[in-house]
Amino acid sequence: MPSKTQLLAAILALPAALADVITGIPDPAPVGFEQWVSPVIMPAPPVVGTGDWATAVARAKNFVSGLTLEEKINVTTGIDIGGPCTIPRLSWNGLCLQDSPLGVRLAQNVSAFPAGINAAATWDTALIEARGKAMGAEFRGKGVNVALGPMTNMGRQAAAGRNWEGFGADPFLSGVATAATINGIQSNGVIATVKHFIANEQEHFRGGSEASQIYSSNIDDKTFHELYLWPFAEAIHTGVGAVMCAYNKINQTQACQNSKIINGVLKEELGFMGLVMSDWAAMIDGIQPALAGLDMNMPGFFAYGRGPQTEGNPDTATNGWWGANLIEMVKNGSVPEARVDDMVVRTFAAYYKLGQDLGYPEISLKDAVNVQADHYKLIRQIGAASTILLKNTNKALPLAVTNIKRIAILGSDAGPNPDGANACSDRGCSQGTMAMGWGSGTANFPYLIDPLQAITSHIQSIDPTVVIDSVLNDFDLAQVRTVSSLADTCLVFASADSGEGYINVGGNQGDRNNITLWHGGDALISTTAASCANTIVVQHTVGPVTMEAWIDHPNVTAVLYAGVPGQETGNAIVDVLFADGAQATNPSGRLPYTIAKAREDYPADVLYASGVGTPQITYEEGLGIDYRWFDINNITPRFEFGFGLSYTTFGYSSLMIAKTHYRRDAEQQAVVSSSAAASTQSSNATVSASVPASTITASASSISSSASISASVSIATNATSTTSASSASSSPIGQLGGPSALYSQLLSVSFRIENTGSLAGNEVSQLYLTFPDESGEPPKVLRGFSRNFLECGQSKVVRIPLRLKDVSVWDVVSQEWVVPSGTFTVHVGSSSRILPLTGSFTM
Ligand SMILES: *[C@@H]1O[C@H](CO)[C@@H](O)[C@H](O)[C@H]1NC(C)=O
Ligand SMILES: *[C@@H]1O[C@H](CO)[C@@H](O)[C@H](O)[C@H]1NC(C)=O
Ligand SMILES: *[C@@H]1O[C@H](CO)[C@@H](O)[C@H](O)[C@H]1NC(C)=O
Ligand SMILES: *[C@@H]1O[C@H](CO)[C@@H](O)[C@H](O)[C@H]1NC(C)=O
Ligand SMILES: *[C@@H]1O[C@H](CO)[C@@H](O)[C@H](O)[C@H]1NC(C)=O
Ligand SMILES: *[C@@H]1O[C@H](CO)[C@@H](O)[C@H](O)[C@H]1NC(C)=O
Ligand SMILES: *[C@@H]1O[C@H](CO)[C@@H](O)[C@H](O)[C@H]1NC(C)=O
Ligand SMILES: *[C@@H]1O[C@H](CO)[C@@H](O)[C@H](O)[C@H]1NC(C)=O
């Protein structure tokens, strides 16, 4: 963090004309938090169109050069739900932006996909991409230009309300899932939006322009880069068109006006070429966001409850932070017009990059246009593939209908919402089976197949004489006892819900108040288990729940963790429970977070109460989130990150670690660091990337476990940061996601897996890396995974690549990724704690 003197020097280094309009000074921190302030990084770097963005950026610049200031402002300022901003003179009809990360929100005849957390639980990149592609087809079909997803946070607090929208508690897993989702969505020409940038990890005090309290996420630079930024970097590297900044503050400065994170990190360090939009009413000022690099104000008005916000009211132009006010800011010199030009160029760059000028469909959100195609098949497949088998004793699962005489199905989570699947606005209630959390991250169910319905029809299709009893009242324990004591098989369904903070469900203001089951789930399960020797538990939850009350009960023979599976939830659970039909699924889902024995075992929790305007949330655990914390502190979790059983068994053998050969020019880029010239002007970013590079040399070729590679991979950097006005200028502008060599493959880890059991199935293999001792990393971090299908007795060699970035750490001094020297240990296996194979290599 620069001192005050350095900041002053940075400001003085700017051209005189700009110096007096650069009013950004770090927002002050309260006593005791003085080090947690964000530096000011100005001016905003204008987009540099390179690579496969070059044509789009050039076209955008050409287009924007023909616009009037009023027309440009129109593109920067949204209009709430009623309709997009337009440029009538040019017959440009504006952009339609719509939620959500799991389907098209507030629309008819669309699909309700499994939530992000379920996509992550499949650990299957192809399935995750297929989900993105199907969602993208629906957004496009409905005329939505910009899909407001994917969402990626880090699940730092297990109870945080929106964790289910994202991809779990590990940056690598989230990064892969984020990129795959974006690739899928954008393959349909829809602009994807990665959100919420950044450290948007709880709902209480999350902020927004109407909020009286906005929390500050205080994160050190290493943790920021290695955990929270990682999936955003992967998103930018893969070409995401839009980034949404968050409601909260980072180091005291609100995300949408934090020049360090937008100008410095997104646009300089990560070379982002698309647009940055605000979350809905996240802006708390007009001038600062413009200077800090925000490109689009959504939805255009000042605040919920302040200024026009009714559907279709176009007055946002005069009653929002921007609109007519932005014209005034340009005219009175507060915001350079070049900055406005760049906002619009970035927006049109994304538009052209995704080919949206070529016959994009009309908006039809509420019309009968049906875009569901056969996506229900994929939704069912992902629902089953994301189901995690946590316990299975005496081969309780899979069930065989022929062995069942009488089955009890218990719990409100098994049945329908008595008021209808979409009865509660934005799913803001907890009634019936839970297949989605609540808030803006939702879509309307076109229909909802509940478990009771699906299980009943499945059993009856095979043997209509099986007696099926159900009790959907969670608190009628007498009836539960009666029914379960008569049954040979009992299926208990229980749930835990959460969502976005603008809706309160049963006293839960977005974030969960606890991490136990809802609706008396623990008592329901215990009561059932006391009278039914074959009690099988199915949980639909938004995140971890503690299950100590009954997990070791001998009558609880199996536990399935089904997450938030979307419209086909009932069919998906049938595919796993019975594994007998055309869609039979041998479970292979793996936990995308740790399930602790006690809430206190987690490193951090939601901050529920605070009396100050900026509640301080300091990420004191640093890199030690989720499984890393349990590893560092030797805490035994109930079920570790990455855990999940199968109906078959797999053997692991023959670990090999091989050096990958790659192009020398890529090597050069890895070691090149640049300094953004001190004289950067808002209209002309000059970058010199000419620092002499040392080389990466590798000698060893291939090597098996227990030996070591003597590859000397030395990456010496020599950043000349002293002349830079920016502390985040260490990577060449124009390389998406940072220096491209970071994304090139360095090593290939291979091993053999064999299906040693009696059923075909998928195995999710995971690769964890232990960094050299002195590198300050947790005991092990996920750096690769692969899901593979194997017939009984079949074996197969699995290869997992390691990129330069995967073996690098963020160096806070040089502001670059560096490879620590020393010995790395590679662990391979089926969870973060079941790692039968070990090898090493030395850098
Ligand atoms: C936040 O403050 C910490 C501590 O000074 C610093 O390491 C980090 O880089 C800052 N991050 C941002 C985004 O301002
Ligand atoms: C801005 O958009 C509105 C509709 O949203 C339109 O009526 C108006 O003419 C546009 N202004 C310009 C200058 O194009
Ligand atoms: C310039 O205009 C903006 C928007 O109306 C206003 O907020 C700001 O105070 C003005 N600045 C000056 C120096 O007049
Ligand atoms: C489309 O949605 C409308 C409105 O809900 C409904 O009446 C219609 O049946 C739907 N069409 C199809 C094919 O699902
Ligand atoms: C946890 O919260 C849920 C939902 O509000 C509630 O039903 C349940 O009783 C709470 N559990 C405990 C142990 O307080
Ligand atoms: C398990 O279920 C049987 C009924 O089949 C019951 O008799 C027994 O007490 C139960 N065991 C426990 C530990 O509750
Ligand atoms: C950027 O600055 C350089 C050097 O002053 C100049 O040659 C070039 O034309 C400028 N480019 C733009 C786009 O203004
Ligand atoms: C960095 O540059 C300085 C000054 O040119 C030089 O003395 C030093 O050896 C360089 N370091 C590396 C690692 O190249």
From TrEMBL:
The Fibronectin type III-like domain extends over: 763-832
User: Which top-level enzyme class is recorded in the Swiss-Prot or TrEMBL entry?
Assistant: hydrolase
Q: Which UniProt keywords apply?
A: Carbohydrate metabolism, Cellulose degradation, Glycoprotein, Glycosidase, Hydrolase, Polysaccharide degradation, Signal
Gene3D superfamilies, per database record: Glycoside hydrolase family 3 C-terminal domain, Glycoside hydrolase, family 3, N-terminal domain, Immunoglobulins
Q: What is its EC number?
A: 3.2.1.21
Pathway, per record: Glycan metabolism; cellulose degradation
Q: Which domain of life is it from?
A: Eukaryota
* A single GO molecular function term of this UniProt record: beta-glucosidase activity
PROSITE patterns xref list: GLYCOSYL_HYDROL_F3 (PS00775)
A biological-process GO annotation: cellulose catabolic process
This enzyme catalyses: Hydrolysis of terminal, non-reducing beta-D-glucosyl residues with release of beta-D-glucose
Signal peptide position in this chain? Answer: 1-19
Q: Which family does it belong to?
A: Belongs to the glycosyl hydrolase 3 family.
**Entry protein name:** beta-glucosidase
Organism name:
Mycena venus
Which lineage do the record's taxonomy fields give for this organism? Eukaryota, Fungi, Dikarya, Basidiomycota, Agaricomycotina
